[in-house]
Amino acid sequence: MAELVxxxxxxxVLYGLLLFLMxxxxxxxxxxxxxxxFAHASFYMxxxxxxxxxxxxxxxxxxxxxxxxxxxxxxxxxxxxxxRHVHKHGHVAELLFTFGLAFVIEEVVQIIWGKAPVDFRVPxxxxxxxxxxxxxxxxxxxxxxxxxxxxxxIGLFVMLTHTRIGLIVQAALTHPHMVAHLGxxxxxxxxxxxxIGAALAGIAGVIAGPALVTQSSMAALLGxxxxxxxxxxxxxxxxxxxxxxxxxxxxxxxxISVSLSLSEIFAGSGFSPQPKTLLDDLxxxxxxxxAPILPYALxxxxxxxxPTGLFGNRET
Length: 316
Description:
The chain is an all-alpha fold. It has a domain at about 1-215. The protein is built from 14 helices and 2 strands; from the N terminus they run H-H-H-H-E-E-H-H-H-H-H-H-H-H-H-H. The protein has a two-stranded antiparallel ribbon. Strand 1 (about 130-135) and strand 2 form a beta hairpin. Helix 2 (about 40-60) packs parallel to helix 4 (about 90-115), helix 3 packs across helix 8 (about 185-210) and helix 5 (about 140-160) packs across helix 6 (about 165-175). The model has no long low-confidence stretch (mean pLDDT about 85).
């Protein structure tokens, strides 16, 4: 039992911080620009594929530097020549634009790299067990992922709350004309913020690519859970995104390890539903089987009882 709790906690924290690493850029863009970017997971996928390609030419560490910069460049072009013109038409137009952009990026990735998974491997310098817990080896690469995620949270938090740049950007969101009169280039600020958010997604892609499967469907697989994270935590709240990521990571990890069903829990009650009925099926479903839907059930509860999210102050 102790082994299950410790291993599940480690894996849950790792998965949660990985979710935060992917959701941090989405949170940054919304908190500073008010744009809910449906294509954010696609920038994450671009980061993974750019990282894979550069790692084949120059190794993993150059890929970790240059792949996010390339994704930031793509984000800057998207904001300058697309989103900036759509923004004046309101949030619905932004959502439709980014939703369509996600499909465009997926098709481009499939044209260049194909639909099959690519062989993006963990760097040799981190391909060893860091420590052993109850005969289970914990990879050093997972600790590297933890360290990067924590460093990004600290860096973003400091930038948003304790630097002049963060204050200027947040002021540009609420009072753009006043910021412009003070001599700041508001369009350039917004383009830079969007590029930084895309770069964060790119970093997540490079980091997660070797640990997860790098394929053209990875954005569609992880995109929905990112929006669960930012909505549950509170749109625009960095602390909320971190808390929600850890909550969802631990919830899913522990749920997957539990094989109990209602029939086993209430075995002594004497109740048994009619065989081959819907109630009988529900009676025998295990917690592990419903683990993938638990984050979405949590999302529904949060939207019912606290629409702004756990730490948010904007209506979702």
